[in-house]
Amino acid sequence: MRGLRTGSLRVRVTATAIAVLLVVLPITGLTVKAVFDAQAERSLDSLLTGRAQLAQQLARQNVAPGNLVRRVDADGVRVTLILRNGRQLGAPPIDAGGTVRQVKATLQAGQQTKGATLMLSADTSLLADASARLRRVLLISGALAIIITALALVIGMRFALAPLDAMTGLARSIAAGRRGGRLQPERADTELGRTAAAFDEMLDALEGAEGAARRSEDRMREFVADAAHELRTPIAGLQTAAETLIQLGPRAAANQRGQLELLLVRESRRAGTLVSDLLELSRIDAGLQLHLTQVDLHHLAESQAARLRLVAPDLEVEVDGSAIVSADPERLAQVLANLVDNARQAGARTIRLTVAASGVLVEDDGPGVPPEARERIFERLVHGPHSKGAGLGLAIARGVARAHGGDLTVADRPDGKPGAAFHLHLPTSPPNPDV
Questions:
Q1: Where exactly are the transmembrane stretches of this chain (predicted)?
Q2: Which of 152, 167, 223, 238 has a CA between 20 and 30 Å from the CA of residue 28?
Q3: Global confidence as pTM
């Protein structure tokens, strides 16, 4: 692929203008000279013809031959009158041809001039001289026009290309790290105006993308730091329990050894859960693969309710409504499990799952979520006041919901009672399984 030709625009425009002049001026000069020569020939013919007509008119007025010659005579015209008796008046006759243009006429009236021969001669060398002078004038004026035009273009292009210089200066300042500058064209309906407006739009998009990338990078760094902090706690517990077991050795009491082994299992499970959640979030960011099928939402909600009754027998769980949707059953079960477990950990005594074609509403009678925290709890590694996890569950749940083309929100309970209401919104049409 050939690169963009980046020769000097000033040189290119100047050279183009001069090339146009070199073509136009000779054509114009030749045209002017041809018109001048033709007009001069017609003028000379008209002069000779007019003098001959004047002679005929004077002859009809019976003007004397000598007086007729004087009155017909004109600058550049030789008048010769040959009477019937052979007498010649005026200039001596010359032969036509070469540089001599001649008109002959026989006078038709007059006592002395009737039948006389009138010869009018003109030297065309004067026309040739005038044509040559015109040619020299055209050549000199054309050369001066080209020189003046070149100088004017060199000077004028500096002002004409000032907007491009402004664009270049702004681009270099942006590349040097100075942000925020814009061209702000006065008119956007001209070629340079449209270019400047497009340049400003490009800078807006680039700076917006740069800002988004910087914010994303900051969030990623914060997320990595928080994840490392969360992993440090179970790893520290594992290390402490393992070192204590090694120090106690075989002399350790059975109950003390059992507590340490239980701590090892609990902390390793906690670390494993955190790593699994982090991997789940990375899958969501990369584009979650869904395995869509027809899902009975009532059956899915009832399964979670049955599990919860086994884990917390004193918890009251209700399931109402029914609906069949196109979704990934394992992913929806993951979302519902997260929601009911969060409600239980928050201290709820009653949980109600309401199923509909638009999704599932999970209500509890726990402490609820303050309005100012209702978006923040869905961020990664954000712990609620009653949360016992790593702060990834709700972020994963919302990511799964949005992968289905829906969403996950939290609000007050519709009946106005204390508690929280998490609404899993599902689309009425099947989502794209490659999202």
A1: 12-36, 137-161
A2: 152
A3: 0.48
Q: Residue 412, SS3?
A: coil
Measured over the CA atoms of residue 207, residue 212, residue 215 and residue 220, the dihedral's sign is negative
Indicate the DSSP class of residue 97. B
pLDDT digits (tens, 9 = 90+) for 278-333: 777 777 777 778 889 999 999 999 998 998 888 888 899 999 999 999 999 988 99
| Phi and psi, residue 184, nearest 5° | 50, 70
Report yes or no: 284 and 396 within 8 Å, Cβ to Cβ: yes
The phi, psi pair for 269, rounded to 5°, reads -65, -40
What lies within 8 Å, CB to CB, of 203 at 6+ separation is 170, 174, 181, 182
Q: Contact 260/244 with Cβ under 8 angstroms?
A: yes
Instruction: List CB contacts of 45: < 8 A, sequence separation 6 or more.
Output: 101
What are the residues whose beta carbons fall under 8 Å from the beta carbon of 390, sequence distance 6 or more?
230, 273, 274, 277, 381
DSSP-derived secondary structure for 213-274: HHHHHHHHHHHHHHHHHHHHHHHHHHHHHHHHHHHHGGGS-HHHHHHHHHHHHHHHHHHHHH
DSSP state string for 279-295: HHHHHHHHHPPP--EEE
Whole-angstrom distance, CA of residue 394 vs CA of residue 350: 20
Joined together, the tokens standing for residue 357 give 């074609």
Q: Which domains does the chain have, with CATH numbers?
A: 9-160 (no CATH), 180-287 (1.10.287.130), 288-425 (3.30.565.10)
Which residues does 26 contact at the CB level (< 8 Å), separation at least 6? 142
Sheet holding 117-123, edge to edge: 88-90, 77-82, 117-123, 100-106
Count Cα atoms within 13 angstroms, Cβ side, for 17.
Answer: 17
